[in-house]
Structures are given as C-alpha cells and as structure tokens.
Amino acid sequence: MTLQIKSFDEYKDAYRRSVDDPEAFWAEQASTFEWREKWHTVLENDFITPDVKWFVGGKLNITENCLDRHVKTKPDQLAIIWEPNEVFQKPLRLTYKQLLSEVNKCANALKEMGVSKGDRICFYMPMIPQVAIAMLACARIGAIHSVVFAGFSANSLADRIKDASCKMVICSDFNHRGPKTIPVKEVVDEAIKMGCDSVEKVLVFQSTNKNVEWNPDLDIWWHDIVDRQDDVCEPEVMDSEDMLFILYTSGSTGKPKGVVHTVGGYMVYTCFTFKNVFQYEEGDTYWCTADVGWITGHSYILYGPLLAGATTLMFEGVPGHPDAGRFWRVCEKHRVNQFYTAPTAIRALMAAGWHEPEHYDLSELKVIGSVGEPINEEAWHWYDEKVARGNAKIVDTWWQTETGGILITPLPNITDTKPCFASYPLPGVQPVLVDQNGTELVGNNVEGLLCIKFPWPSILRTTYGDHERCKSTYFAPFKGMYFTGDGAKRDEDGRYRIIGRVDDVINVSGHRIGTAEVEDAINQHSGVVESAVVGYPHDIKGQGIYAYVKAHHEIVEEAHFRKEILDIVTKAIGPIAKPDVIQFVIQLPKTRSGKIMRRILRKIAERDTSNLGDTSTLLNPESVDELKEGAEKIFNS
Ligand code: PRX
Predict the structure, then answer these.
(1) Which range has the worst mean pLDDT, 449-453, 586-590, 617-621, 627-631?
(2) Mutation test of ligand 1: which of 371, 449, 497 has the most ligand atoms closer than 8 Å to its C-beta?
(3) Which of 27, 249, 403, 444 is least crowded, fewest Cβ atoms below 10 Å from its Cβ?
(4) Taking the CA atoms of the chain, what radius of gyration do you get in angstroms?
(5) What is the DSSP string of 594-622?
(6) Of the residues 486, 506, 508, 576, which should be mutated to test ligand 1's pocket, given the most ligand atoms within 8 Å of the CB?
(7) If you measure from the C-alpha of residue 464 to the centroid of ligand 1, how many angstroms do you get, rounded to a whole number?
(8) Per-residue DSSP letters for 538-588?
C-alpha cells in the first residue's frame, strides 16, 4: 500500500527520509505497485542536459495498476461515476470490472485500426466516460495520448496534431456544455483540412442524434467498432521511461509546447500525492471538477484516483447550469467526500449566490481543494465558511503541467492551513527561492523565484520534438535547478505562498495563456501594426487579458474593429484567449533599442500608475500619458 501520512510527525519523518535518501524513499513507494520487471536503478539524475530517469529498467503497464490490480480484489467497487450535463439525465456508474472491460474493448478497437505502441493519438473530447476509457485504452497498448481541451479552436488543434504527427483523432459528434450543444467533430474536420496528413482515422463517439458530415475514408463510429470487440486485451509491457502522454501548455514564447510524461514515475507520484493530499479512504467518493483537457484532469480525475483504487466522479457540465447550486447538489447527491476545484469557479459561485451552498447537505466533505491559480483571501474564507463549514479542510495545491503532480500543499488535518498559502512541500520536493542571479535566498521571510533543486518522479522529461526548448525554458535559467516560472514568498515558518507567473504567461481562469500567442493572433489582422498583451486583475477570472493595439490607419468603426480582433483570436486560439479589454493606441512605449516596455503597460492595465518608474529612458516618453488617458476612458466607460 502506498504510504499514507497521518500525522505531522509522520510528515516530518517522511520528508526527512525523502531528502536524506530520495532513492530509498521512492523505491519504497514504487514497490507497492505491480511491475512486470523490477527496475535496476531508482534514479538517473541529470538536471543539466536535462536527462532524468526514474525506476530505470522497470517494466510495467500503468493500466494493470489502475484496473486489473483492483479487479482482483474489489471488482464491483465503483471506479467512475459520471454526472451528465442535464439534471434530468441519469448518472452512469462503472465498476472497476466494467471499466476494465470497456478499456479492453476500446484497446482492441484501436489495434484493429492499426494503432500500436508509440503512436500518438489526439483527443478532442468532452467530459464523457469514453474519454477516460479511450485514454486508458491508449495506455493499455502503449499508444501516447495527447488530449487537447475541446474549447480550443481548429487552428490550435491542428497545430497540436501536426506537432506530434498524430495517427488518429478521437472525438465526439457534439459536446453538451450547460445550455449549449457544441459541434465537436466539425472542429476536428476543419483542423484535419489544415494539413494534418498524419491522421489516418477519426474515431467518433455519438452523443446526440444530430447529423454530422461524414468522410467514410477517415471516420469511424465508436459504436461500430468498439462495441463488437473482445473484452480481454493483453497489456503492452512498457518501459518505465516510455512515454505515457503529451500535454500542450503555453509558455512565454512561441507556440505551446508538448510536455512529456513517462509511465513509471508519473504512476508512482500521482498515486502517492492523491492518497496523501486528499487523504482518500476506502469507500470515499472523490470529485475533481477539472476538464480532462488539462493536467489536473489527467492526474487527479483519471490516473491518481484509479491507481489508488478510488471512486472518481466525472462531471460533464458547467458550474452554473442549470443554476449556481449545481456543484453543491452534485456533492450532496453523490455524498462527495473530497472536492477539488479552481479559484475561478469558487469566485464565480460566490458571486452567483453567496448563501447558495447553505441549502445543501455538505456534511460528507472532508477535504476541499483549490488549484490552478492563486486563491484570494475573500474566496478562501468563503470556501472555508460556506463549503468546508468546519467539517472539511482546504488544500491549496500548487503544481504545474510540467510537474505532473502536486508539489506544495497543506495536508488536511496534518499540517496547518493559512489562507492563500500552498504551505509546505510534499515529501520528495525540495523547493528553493532564488534571486534574478540565481543566488539562493536562504532563511525565512523571503521572496523570490521558485525553483526545485532535486527531481521528483513525475517531473517532465522533455518537450515533444524539441529537447532544447525544455532545457532553455526550465533548466538553463538557473543551473542545476528546475525553474517553475512562478514567484513565491516563504513566510516566517517556512510556508510557501505562490504569487504568480513571473514570465509572459497570463493565468486566465486557471488556464495558461502566453501573451505572445495572443499578440500573434491579433497581429494577423491586416489593420493592426503591432500589439502588446498583458494580464490585469480580474474579479472572477483571476487575471484578464488586456491588449494594446496599434492600428495602421485612424479607426473609423471601433466596435467593428474590436469584434474582428476578438474573432481572429477565437479562431486562432479559442474563446478562452479573447482579450477582455482592447485599448487602441497611437504608439506603444519603447526602449531605445525598440523593445516594448511591458512593465509600464502592466501597471496601466492594473490601474496602478502612481509609480511607473523611470520613463525618461523611453524612446517615446510622451506615449505614457496617451496610454494613461486611453485607459482612463476605458475604465470610466
Ligand atoms: O502560476 C502557477 C499556477 O498555475 C501554473 C501552472 O499552470 P498549469 O500548468 O496549467 O497547471 C495548472 C494546474 C496544476 C503555475 O505555474 N498555479 C497552479 N496552482 C496554483 C497556482 N498558483 C497559485 N496557487 C496555486 N495553488
């Protein structure tokens, strides 16, 4: 059994052991899983190249650990509860035995369609059980899944399909989200027409009886091929360091990069963190509201919970449908014990109905989590008073796509909680704060750039097809350390508080958006000379997107121009990247070497113009007053 820490002393002991002898600590955790062959070396640690390997030489299949292992001991325990979008629709329940059989059928179908070990399979799916089934089916046969959030545009989808030369796309016909029915396959069709020549098949799950365009050379209905398969599929024996999945995430430059996670370390770490952070006990029902298109869905809807033999709830809908009580009604209905969501959802629900949670029985909740962005004090206290109500503890969990699992978090009833603090590192995690020069800031009461100085098992291994980018983004900035891109404070007792990104990444409703990506999209408009995008505080989204746009000519119809820009961004990236504010400018503030002074733009967008710093070195200092005036007009309108 994976170690489950139960007291502060046990936490301190585990932490000390994990630092004194990380290899022994993680070997102990790894030995609780089923391996076809044991590893010969626990860790190969090269943080420079980088080249990190865990459980080297080990052979396994992660789905045997997620499914077969539990089928042997508790076949009839629920693995997945699926709560559909509509309240009148019945939830679907899958036991471990049923899930294994569905996964095997899908795995056999993939094989029949010519998929084999190492092939990349792109997913563009809503939150339906088939997404979990198909992801596990890939892992069963050694194919690599690359899940793309179904809110991204055809352009973004095409970029990701091409980057990984995916052989197949798995999608649904439509997606039910709140009151909307969104055409999913249509987007896939559009993406494929953008030069996705590697795609040989599109597997389509039918969730409505609406018509879709059909290309018989490419498209296959799920029910035509999966349903008739045998429900036994021998798992592919994988190397511990074989790829499990690719997940794209935005950075400060260029196109999103494909973060690569491998089988063995990811398995050990997601299970360990799930059991400890959520203190999951046999019989509990756990619910994470994330979408499987993000890392939270991968690690804490699917892999972590199933590895731990838990019952994991999947929700198809959105928090506000049909009303602001939906989350709490689901908690009450399924007697949820652990609930995990994002600050943006907490803020939206808080705004929609301050007292709403009081109408529901939430007494079964033991742990309630937050992830994806800094949680503000007001939201933290509301979550504590209205949802936790003295029964549950809040865990503010800090981690990233690249880290694979949670790194810094309170442990419920074990370590103390302090509003807005992710608090202490989990065993195996060695955070450090450094200054701009990479000098470690020792002691407490310090603030700096957050780095991790020793590998944990689920650290990213590379960025797909471009190892150099992995090195330059994460390992080159501070030698011998993994750089997170976040700034953090360490308080007088050693607790961490994450402040936010220090690079050109905006965290919009917990989604990472690169400013460069949005600028590239805006600049596609023929009327735009240049643009600069920054983040600014937003009541619900955490950060909003503020775009400064310089046009070629005098703008005649501003509203029309604005709409065209929004449409271009939606088309290039997806609606989540649409700027909340567009300010048309005569000129952008530039240094003498021609660089845009983003610091000034950020301050103006944040409405904090009292101290803009030294603007005299600008090439065009007069631009600052123009910008301030323009912003005032927008704020007052
Ligand atoms: O800035 C941090 C923020 O989200 C970033 C990672 O985003 P992503 O890779 O999309 O993964 C999100 C889900 C794990 C981080 O660099 N972030 C994540 N969790 C927190 C957070 N910021 C503050 N507090 C958190 N608990």
Answers:
(1) 617-621
(2) 371
(3) 444
(4) 24
(5) S-B-HHHHHHHHTT--S-----TTBS-TH
(6) 486
(7) 21
(8) ETTTEEEEEEEEEESS--S-HHHHHHHHHHHHHHHT-GGG--SEEEEES--
Nearest to 195 by CA among 164, 154, 237, 162: 162
Task: Give the SS3 label for residue 354.
Answer: coil
Ramachandran category for residue 107: left, alpha or beta (phi over 0 → left; psi -120 to 50 → alpha): alpha
Could you tell me if the CB of 474 is within 6 A of ligand 1? no
Is ligand 1 within 6 A of the CB of residue 401? yes
Q: How far is the CA of 517 from the centre of ligand 1 (A)?
A: 19
**Does 372 sit in the ligand 1 pocket, CB within 6 Å?**
yes
Q: Give yes or no for residue 344 CB within 6 A of ligand 1.
A: no
| Distance between Cα 279 and ligand 1 center (Å) | 21
Q: What is the mean pLDDT of residues 201-219?
A: 97
- 36, 286, 371, 126 alpha-carbon torsion, rounded to 10°: 80
Please state, for a pLDDT cut of 70, what percent of the chain lies above it: 100
Decide if 596 contacts 585 (C-beta within 8 A).
no
In eight-state DSSP terms, residue 224 is H
Instruction: State the DSSP code for 357.
Output: G
Q: How far apart are CA 31 and CA 19, in angstroms?
A: 19
The DSSP code for 6 is -
From the CA of 250, how far away is ligand 1's center (Å)? 12
Cα dist. 8→11, 176, 422, 442, 444 in Å?
5, 44, 16, 24, 20
